[in-house]
Amino acid sequence: MYFIGSNGINWITEDFGKKIKAINTGIIMENYLIHPSEPTWGLFSTVDSKININSDNNNNNTINTTNITNTINSVNRKVYYTSDYGMTYKLLVSHVFQYEW
């Protein structure tokens, strides 16, 4: 079982939670898919998207809607492969909309 954490720290257990091990991947994961028949294999994604949030004089935050279409279209989702629960991984492809095994 794989648990996505925060700040690049994720967690795994091979014995249904009796022991939980921290893995520092150094990257923030968006999603993790375990292979259907090989539990140590996984695909995971990261997203690098930038939305400009502006504050006005009254401290009201607004999203720059003039560039929202360009922002959505420029999301950079990267998909990685691992065969050891994420202890090591390899970048497979960038700019992916959807992925699965």
Explain how this protein is built.
The protein has 101 residues and is mainly beta. The chain has one helix at 68-73, and strands at residues 2-3, 9-12, 21-24, 31-34, 42-48, 53-55, 61-63, 76-82, 90-93. The protein has a domain at 30-93. The chain is globular, with a radius of gyration of 17 Å.
Summarize the structure.
This protein is mainly β. The protein has 1 helix and 9 strands; from the N terminus they run E-E-E-E-E-E-E-H-E-E.
Task: Describe the SSE topology.
Blueprint (H helix, E strand, L loop, with lengths): L1 E2 L5 E4 L8 E4 L6 E4 L7 E7 L4 E3 L5 E3 L4 H6 L2 E7 L7 E4 L8
Antiparallel strand pairs: 1-2, 2-3, 4-5, 5-8, 6-7, 8-9
User: What structural category arises from helix and sheet content?
Assistant: mainly beta
Largest sheet: 4 strands, antiparallel
Mean pLDDT over the residues: 77
Spell the H/E element sequence: EEEEEEEHEE
Helix tally? Answer: 1
Counting DSSP E segments of at least 2 residues, the number of strands comes to 9
State the separation between the terminal residues, measured CA to CA. 17 Å
Strand order of the largest sheet: 4-5-8-9
Spans with pLDDT under 50 lasting ≥5 residues?
A: 51-55, 62-74
Radius of gyration from CA coordinates: 17 Å
Shape: globular
Helicity, as a percent range = under 10%
Q: What does the oligomeric state look like here?
A: single chain
Roughly what fraction of the amino acids lie in strands? Answer: 35-45%
